[in-house]
What we know:
By secondary structure, the chain is α+β, with helices and mostly antiparallel strands. The protein has a domain at about 5-110. Helix content is about 20%, strand content about 30%. Helix 1 runs parallel beside helix 3 (about 175-199).
Amino acid sequence: xxxxxxxxxxxxxxxxxxxxxxxxxxxxxxxxxxxxxxxxxxxxxxxxxxxxxxxxxxxxxxxxxxxxxxxxxxxxxxxxxxxxxxxxxxxxxxxxxxxxxxxxxxxxxxxxxxxxxxxxxxxxxxxxxxxxxxxxxxxxxxxxxxxxxxxxxxxxxxxxxxxxxxxxxxxxxxxxxxxxxxxxxxxxxxxxxxxxxxx
Length: 199
């Protein structure tokens, strides 16, 4: 069985780290249909030391990391289990509550004040991506779906950050990533200044 061995691991909900590897191609591990496991946002085929293959759905583990695993854009990175309203056509229960499902979201920014995650769903030419923002110092730490630059800027603009963030250019594919990184930097800078004035 051909599997990548590059320091990949899973993290259990008890924070145990277990070394494993991920098939370079699910077909090589006799996993079918392979297309269901190519992006790793719903479930992930995992090979353990005894050569056993296990399909791990999102929610069964806290996180996993794939390092230089494959050629796919969706393949590498640190993915965390998150419970979200069902994506791809939100379904509702008869009592009006939104169904929630577990997904593996790839972490783009892990900040003290804000984090940014991404999920890709679909296959082939029908892949769509969605960004989720979490602001850690707010009253709620819910993941907020990123709808656009102005809304995201408004969410992150407070007394410490509004003026500087408004100067940030929104060009390029990393515009939201850069925005969240800059927000964390400005908040940290403000916290250091506040700490210095209290001493």
